Amino acid sequence: MSDTLLQIAYIVLPVFGLMGLGLGSAWTGYLSESVGEALGDFVFLVALPLLLFRTLATAEMPDQSPWPLWISYFGGLAVAWIVADQMIRRMFGRDFKAGVIAGVSAGFSNAVLFGVPLVFTAFGEAGAVPLLLVVAVQLPVMMTVGTILIEQAARRDGSHMGPISLRSIAGSVAYNLIRNPLIIGVLAGLAWRFAAFPYDGIPAVIVDRLSAAALPCALFALGMSLRRYGIRGHVLPGVLLAGLKLIVMPAIVWLLVAKVFGLPPLWTTVVTVVSACPTGVNAWLIANRFRTGHAIAANTISISAAASLLTMSFWLAVLGV
């Protein structure tokens, strides 16, 4: 028992320690907000895309269909989203647009800035394939579904009376995705792999060294960004949404991957861990884009990040890591 707790501590505490250092440096003013933004840009534009590229270009690909993993992950996400939407509208009397933001906040895992460092710390590159299957698909699916539902919610709330143009939405989402550095890193890694190009020499050394900076810098930048969100307004919705994100969603995902589809143990563990990650900052970006639900998104991001120290330790123990 003590060995298990020690192993979990070695996984979890460095992750939250780096986040805490980032938050502390921003909170005290030791580093300015512009430094955090620059570090976040480096992680998002350079380090993480190179890490994804390197991993996909060199990782061992098992003969395993991704569909059971995707069905399990998005099945748990859908349940959390629906419950969150109904709860915000029925318990707190918010409009349909706020319900969509609540759904995004309860279902959008921070799989990149939090999940990638955590999975690589816990499992090394052995956990990369199931992790990247989630990372590569979550953003396109969530952006597409979120945009369509927000447009529909605006019509139901009476703030937008025009027809929904699926072609316009699809074009906008596709344009944003093909410009997304993470998607570019994934596609470039797959292309490199299928072309059977060698991964060696000085270029490989440069990529390795830059990608090695991705994990600590991502956590530090994430910690600094939490200073921006904070806690605001009515806190209870954020607490309930964080509970959906950290407990309900991973529980359903685990039941599906382990009991329904019987995926390999490593895949089961990794996808459950990713589903148990705190809410991603994309919830705030979507709220900001559509000018609604700012407090819902900000509170859920902050509360889930703080509470995940305990809940992630719980899930790692349950999964036998």
Automatic annotation (TrEMBL):
Keywords, sorted A to Z: Cell membrane, Membrane, Transmembrane, Transmembrane helix, Transport
Residue stretches spanning the membrane: 6-27, 39-57, 69-88, 100-123, 129-150, 177-195, 201-223, 235-257, 263-285, 297-318
Gene3D superfamilies: 1.20.1530.20
Organism listed in the record: Tepidamorphus gemmatus
Family note: Belongs to the auxin efflux carrier (TC 2.A.69) family.
Protein topology in the membrane: Multi-pass membrane protein
CC per GO annotation: plasma membrane
Subcellular location: Cell membrane
One example of a Gene Ontology biological process annotation: transmembrane transport
Name under which the protein is recorded: AEC family transporter
Entries under InterPro entries matching the protein: Mem_transp_PIN-like (IPR004776), Na+/solute_symporter_sf (IPR038770)
